[in-house]
UniProtKB/TrEMBL annotation:
Matching Gene3D superfamilies: MFS general substrate transporter like domains (1.20.1250.20)
Protein's recorded name: Major facilitator superfamily (MFS) profile domain-containing protein
Subcellular location: Membrane
Residue span, Major facilitator superfamily (MFS) profile domain: 51-453
Pfam family, one: MFS_1
């Protein structure tokens, strides 16, 4: 094990200066004996157990609270808040991303200033309260405003978790950890529909007014986890708050990071950095691939219960229950992909594999008639989208600068592009609907069909 250097400053914000990095000895795996390798593996397992479960719990509730409106829609919220009028549903779903876009970039600046435990636990408490408040909404405007606040509070969670995980592990170790973080949350959140089915029965009228209890109970759970997480989340490796590691172990972790990152100074956010980032085709390529997976993830989380009930003809109870198995399969598939991607130190071929699997699944859902193969398509579709997200995320993190500025900016740019494309697309779809209403055109060759804009 490496003793703590006397002149080294801890990596309490994930970065060190040139002089500080040169003062920390490097840890060369090829020079370690078997005992040292075993000690390092034990240390890594200790970090895993302290870091990953609590971050996974927070991100699980993050996914549940932003997507539970799908379960609420088949439990009475559309009727209670008159969401079926015009495009109110689309608006309520879209506005979440306004706050998300605004706060995503500042979040990783704030996490370094405030500390990971303070920032992430504070966010958990705040969005938990907002989720709980949605359960008391009296009209669709209140719901919409609260969804904006939810986006603001949740924006810092995933980038903060990714930044913290990436600050503790080697490049070859990152994808498996990110897979644990993302896939465990995705898997558990898929069962939220089953839990929601239980929560709605707290109401005397579960199928018309039970939706409120989904938000009330899940918001209370999130708030409790947010408070608890402050006592569990570890800050960056060199922080004095991390008392679960000895000084010797902290030095070992820091040495691992310096070996991975070299001696270059981390970039600061400047207009030059932003300009260079947004004009780099590789940034757009990685961002687009990651964003493709994200689109699929949210499509399944938001709409799979509705597809199962309205399109495939299953009952409400089965729509809740059958939304979980595809997510379970997706977790297994994506984690296998992550294991081999880390083992082989490759990303591109596995992104291609994930995309092909996802395309096959979506084609089965969209173009087949029999409910059984269409349901099987949901397994493949979710498997592909989950694998795309974790592989794309790891690919970007592996190639970012030490401050992860390019990755953060690239993600923000993709959200900005979506924020621009969404109203433009809505405008043209609405105009097509108006022409169809006037009898000037027929949309998609189907009389009476109208776009949801």
């Amino acid at each position: 094990m490496i003793p703590e250097p006397k002149d080294a400053t801890h990596l309490d914000d994930g970065n060190v200066s040139m002089q500080e990095k040169q003062s920390v000895p490097t840890l060369e795996l090829q020079n370690l004996n078997d005992d040292d390798i075993k000690k390092e593996r034990r240390l890594t397992r200790r970090i895993d157990l302290r870091l990953l479960p609590i971050l996974s719990a927070l991100y699980t509730m993050c996914l549940i609270d932003r997507t539970n409106i799908g379960a609420a829609r088949i439990s009475g919220i559309d009727q209670d808040l008159e969401l079926t009028v015009g495009s109110r549903v689309s608006i309520a779903l879209l506005v979440f991303y306004i706050g998300y876009v605004i706060m995503e970039l500042p979040s990783n600046i704030l996490i370094k200033k405030l500390g990971a435990a303070n920032w992430l636990s504070g966010l958990g408490l705040c969005w938990g309260v907002v989720t709980l408040a949605i359960g008391f909404s009296k009209n669709w405007i209140t719901l919409t405003v609260l969804r904006v606040l939810l986006g603001i509070c949740e924006a810092g969670v995933f980038p903060g978790c990714v930044y913290l995980v990436s600050s503790w592990y080697r490049v070859r170790e990152i994808q498996k950890r990110l897979a644990v973080l993302f896939l465990s949350a995705s898997f558990i959140s898929s069962f939220s529909n089953i839990l929601a089915y239980g929560f709605i029965h707290i109401s005397a009228h579960p199928f018309t007014a039970g939706w409120r209890w989904i938000f009330i109970v899940e918001g209370a759970i999130t708030s409790a986890i947010g408070l608890f997480s402050w006592f569990v989340i570890v800050d960056f490796p060199g922080s004095p708050r991390n008392t679960f590691l000895s000084a010797e172990e902290k030095a070992t972790v820091e040495s691992r990071l310096v070996q991975e990152r070299g001696t270059s100074e981390g970039e600061k956010v400047t207009w030059k950095v932003i300009r260079e980032t947004v004009t780099d085709w590789r940034v757009w390529s990685l961002s687009f691939m990651y964003n493709t997976g994200s689109v699929g993830i949210y499509a399944f989380l938001f709409f799979l219960p509705i597809i199962l009930q309205d399109s495939l003809g299953f009952s409400q109870q089965l729509a809740f229950l059958l939304s979980a198995p595809p997510a379970a399969f997706a977790v297994i598939f994506a984690f296998v992909v992550s294991y081999f991607a880390d083992r082989m130190r490759l990303r591109g071929p596995f992104m291609f594999l994930a995309a092909v699997v996802g395309i096959v699944g979506l084609c089965m859902i969209g173009f087949l008639q029999n409910p059984v193969p269409r349901y099987i398509g949901a397994f493949l579709g979710q498997a592909g989208t989950n694998a795309l997200v974790v592989t794309g995320l790891a690919w970007g993190q592996n190639n970012d600068a030490p401050d992860y500025v390019p990755g953060i900016i690239a993600t923000m740019v993709m959200f900005l592009a979506t924020a621009i494309l969404a109203p433009v697309t809505s405008f043209f779809m609405r105009r097509s609907n108006q022409k169809a209403d006037a009898g000037l055109i027929t949309i998609e060759g189907a009389v009476g069909f109208r776009y949801t804009w």
